[in-house]
Amino acid sequence: MRCRIIGWAAAMMLAAVTAGAQQATDPVQGTWRGLFTDKAWQNTPLSAKIVADGKGLYRVFVELADTDGKPVSALARGAFDGKKFTVDCDLDLGASLGGTCKLTAKGDGAHITGKFKGKNAPGAFKLDHVFIQPPSLGAKPPANGIVLFDGKNLDAWQPTEKPWMIVEGGAMQVGKGNIVSKQEFGDHRIHLEFRTPLMADKRGQARGNSGVYVFGRYEIQVLDSFGLPTADNECGGIYKKAVPKTNACLPPTEWQTYDITFHAPRFDAAGNKTKNAVIKVELNGIVIHDNVELDGTTPGGVSGVEAPKGVLLLQDHHNAVQYRNIWIEPLD
User: Fold this and answer.
1) Among residues 110, 133, 156, which one ends one of the domains?
2) 166 and 264 housed in the same domain
3) What is the pTM of this model?
4) Which among 71, 89, 141, 319 could disulfide-bond with 8, CB atoms 3.0 to 4.6 Å apart, if both were Cys?
């Protein structure tokens, strides 16, 4: 099997703890980090993002640097039989690393050992399964903060069809129909935490889909996009408006954070818009949109007409996405 080269998409600025501190739903899927062990490359770092595809099959996004320090990424394929994870694949690491090489690896849910074999290939390596904790996970609201959900009740929300439910652990789970905050806001900062379900046999927009609609009008996508190329309809994308600067997603079933700073559009006395809305989005502590101007609304919200104030809407897209620790800090 020959494996295609993909673009470099590293988001390495998150704190990590080794396997054992947290139990993943899938024993193999997730972030792996380690070092090369052969003499020429000894202690040189590499990493991999392993994505479950169902039926014991996985995509393995390998990330390393060439001899000039330039990032290299390649896609391999792996399999897990319930006890052992294996990779046996040809892939092209580029001319400086000898071109096409053979990647073999084996391991379990905690450790993987393997080797790149070929001319100028970097040789043997060891990887450990790590679990990343976003820096704002569990953040408390400021003194002027408005708590929309703290795990106790849904009093701050209005369902559009049926009420959502609070599940074990104090999260609310997507139900039938969107859910909308009863209160409107102007300029504000949003903190919320979410996790997508493991849907390894699904693809694309059917894989843990929901959305955070700022002002009820501008959608920040929620989706299981772990390890994938960025797009406006992948997790962190502003739907049909802006592509994230990088993929900062964590694997499904792991809690993730959005910290969103939003400045509302401005209008004159006659109601004409004089300034576009501006948004900054941090996903798991990494800035993925840095003061992006929004020239209009995105589809599927409460209205296609912009306004000086708006609600927070969480989207039902028929997947069991969960949310918790939602609060607003007014900025006006």
Assistant:
1) 133
2) yes
3) 0.90
4) 71
